[in-house]
């Protein structure tokens, strides 16, 4: 069945309130649209964990830098609504920006530590925009559970922190990255890639796999593991934004993988003008 389309904060609040009053559990999946299997995996898991799933489709202007792709971010609302229906989503909140940021808006959420490095260092203000819009969505829907992808690993840690620090009482669920058959992490931004860039983009997942394999065979030092990722990027001429080995929760840099401490390798690189990110757990 086609999902109910919610355009305003007022109708969304009323819809969510009546749902809660009926005693049903609500799952929320925030997105920027142009949906793919990665998004749909979150929605399907939402169905397993709750009675009703809602999604938001909102290209959030406050998380884009001045020279980023806000104006050309891909959009396909009609197709997205059909995809939401196929994944069992009952309601979709798709507001205009002025509904989310009306005149006089002045309150932002800034997660201080976990947003500092990695993408936070390269995209100033990005996670402040993400944290603000996600907080607003969680306060508006008051879902029991909200689902996010590990594809955006730092974002997931930012959201875990704000949920905990602001006592929002929402179960934040992180879901594994859904990949194309050849290993490329699915992303709405993959639509920007030329066939030749699409082919070179595989170096991100290939580099992460190479680093994991190296670690499995006993190499623990960050410099060697990071080097394995860099080699793959360089081999196809992708411009590195960063390659870092970090603690999987705090995201602080590690000089080596230490047994018993969960570690994660994160990479960001440009294929032409398109910025791609990927990450993998590494070590035990
Ligand atoms: P976006 O529309 O890019 O803002 O993503 C919305 C949600 O879908 C975020 O929680 C993302 O982490 C998640 N997501 C995006 N791509 C994937 C993927 N390939 N696998 C799993 N989750 C994803």
Task: Please characterize this protein's 3D structure.
The chain is globular, with a radius of gyration of 19 Å. The mean pLDDT is 97. It is α/β, with parallel strands linked by helices. Strand 2, helix 2 (37-49) and strand 3 (52-57) form a beta-alpha-beta unit. The strands form two sheets. The chain has a six-stranded parallel beta sheet with strand order 1-4-3-2-5-6, with helices on both faces. A three-stranded antiparallel beta sheet has the order 7-8-9. The protein has helices spanning 9-21, 37-49, 77-86, 97-100, 118-122, 126-141, 153-165, 195-200, 202-216, 222-235, and strands spanning 4-6, 26-31, 52-57, 91-93, 145-149, 171-175, 239-247, 263-271, 274-282. Helix content is 38%, strand content 19%. The chain has two domains: 4-175, 3-Layer(aba) Sandwich (Rossmann fold); 188-282, Pantoate--beta-alanine Ligase, Chain: A,domain 2, CATH 3.30.1300. It is built from ten helices and nine strands. Adenosine monophosphate binds at residues 31-32, 38-39, 41-42, 148-149, 151-152, 175, 177-178, 185-188.
**Anisotropy-based shape:** globular
Output the CATH topology of the largest domain. Rossmann fold
Termini distance?
A: 43 Å
What oligomerization state is this entry in? single chain
Number of strands: 9
Q: Any low-confidence stretches, pLDDT <50, length ≥5? A: none
For the record, what is the CATH homologous superfamily label of the largest domain? HUPs
Radius of gyration: 19 Å
Order of helices and strands: EHEHEHEHHHEHEHHHEEE
The kinds of small molecule bound in this structure are:
adenosine monophosphate
Overall structural domain count: 2
